[in-house]
Amino acid sequence: MNNKTLAILKPDCVKKNLIGKVVTLIQKAGFKVSAMKMVKLTPDAAKGFYQIHKDRPFFNDLIVYMTSGPCVPIALEKENAVEDFRKLIGATDPAKAAEGTIRKLYADSIQENIVHGSDSNENAAIEILHFFSRKELPDINGF
Ligand code: IDP
Ligand code: MG
Prior knowledge:
Structural class: alpha+beta
CATH architecture: 2-Layer Sandwich
Helix content: 25-40%
Number of strands: 4
Strand content: 5-15%
Order of helices and strands: EHHEHHEHHEH
Largest sheet: 4 strands, antiparallel
Number of domains: 1
Bound molecules: inosine-5'-diphosphate, magnesium ion
């Protein structure tokens, strides 16, 4: 599976009223929106999603941020989805993100960086299933 990735429009994206602008950039870049919802993460759900970072110094702040308001997980499809989406969003730190990337355009800080993108095909599948049941993925093959 190399044609799916999970995006999350993070709480700062929702609060700044940027959902439409960011989805437009994603679609203009050739991604198909296959499933999308708005959810407010519980602390347990946020901790589960970011388990890999549990020992990092920024972990607690990350959980507070990710639970500070609703976010918008989106299952996306495109050839080479993971890599192409990481290119579209830019570096984690917006100060280091390339011109024209979503984080360069809209993010305020390394923490409040507007959008998540899966970092591998394996994690894309795990992360999509973190937010969507198989029933909610009617047109997605490979699950
Ligand atoms: P990524 O989102 O670009 O894959 P990760 O290293 O996986 O970056 O980190 C997950 C999220 O944790 C980031 O998107 C950001 O919100 C937050 N984060 C990462 N590094 C830092 C940091 O050094 N300080 C504060 N927050 C951070
Ligand atoms: Mg990451």
